[in-house]
Write a structure and sequence with these properties.
The protein is an alpha+beta fold. Helix content is 31%, strand content 24%. The chain contains 3 helices and 5 strands. The strands form 2 sheets. A 3-stranded antiparallel β-sheet has the order 1-2-3, with no helix packed on it. The chain has a two-stranded antiparallel sheet with strand order 4-5. The longest helix is centred in the middle third of the chain and has 23 residues. The relative contact order is 0.13.
Length: 127
Amino acid sequence: MIKCLSKETNFETSFTNGRHKGSCDVPAEKGGGDAGFRPLELLEAALASCLNIWLRMYATRHNMPLAGLATEVSLDRRVAGEAVFEYGLELDGPITEGQRQELLQAAQSCPVYQTLSQKILFKYEPR
């Protein structure tokens, strides 16, 4: 569970899971102080980091010589009613084309990818 707390400056928000902390804000042109990630950037970061970790774990479990991995994610919301996550993977190391294809396929089983691919519902729980 993540808990967010308002900070003193306009829209800056801190968040924690009880062990780690982060900061979120909006850009100055929207009245914020640009003191942290924008909320949608955190959503992009969740997918990008999960892809990165998941594929490195997959490569390790399958003895693939993946030397490094860079992941990029951007969220395209230009079409009303759609949220399109565009992602790229830069696979480093002496992997074969077959291993590359296997990793690209394995990306779709990343837990955040799987979660964002499902029907999403929201449930308010009073605190």
